């Protein structure tokens, strides 16, 4: 067999390739570790502890209504009733309101609170309604008791219109509150000789005549205080004052001061104001 040079070269190359593939080559692998930088936070500065808790003092202010406010509140509550009675029975609303304020202590008196009796109307013969007993001119006298204050206002109107001794009052003009105040005393409605002056004082101090004008549909201008009405002053209560001391100082009575200012009890407060009528002792 004739072997050519070309064939021999191919055989040698193939043999060398086989030897190379059969040998095991050792490969070294180097694992590179990533360099990691660890950041450590700086320790914060610690300052002295500061208290941020604030204590808020809650102040509760108690407002004690003045005695004059009690009268004003009474007027607001019952002015409509007084005007309604004037429309029906021709009794001045100013007189009805003033009597209600005076007789009931601005709605704070026992008869008003427990019996809805705002005018001190006694039982008298023939009364079959509710009753309450109260010390007045005599001990434990019988007074009428009503379910509601509006019944007291209506009974007051009937009391005046149905009794002959009050008939002369209805000859007066409906807005003549001064004539009505004196006429009530003359007819025996009250035993207090200063009763007319007290009614007139209340009417003029609280401008009650405007309600008469409203019912009559008249223009109204406030009238000045009549010269015959006792001079009055505003007294501010100071530390140590008592109603007895104030009454004695101004030649009046505790009962008169209480009625005029709508006071039901005996307690008074420093700084409150009282209306005082000089020389009003009964």
From TrEMBL:
Signal sequence range: 1-25
LysM domain segment(s): 233-276
Keyword Signal found: yes
PROSITE patterns membership: LYSM, PROKAR_LIPOPROTEIN
GO biological process, one term: defense response to bacterium
Keywords: Antimicrobial, Bacteriolytic enzyme, Hydrolase, Signal
GO molecular function: amidase activity
InterPro entries recorded: Glycosyl_Hydrolase_73, LysM, LysM_dom_sf, MGlyc_endo_b_GlcNAc-like_dom
UniProt region (Disordered), positions on chain: 30-54
Gene3D superfamilies linked to this entry: 1.10.530.10, LysM domain
SUPFAM superfamilies on file: LysM domain
Pfam families xref list: Glucosaminidase, LysM
Protein name: Peptidoglycan hydrolase
Organism: Nonlabens marinus S1-08
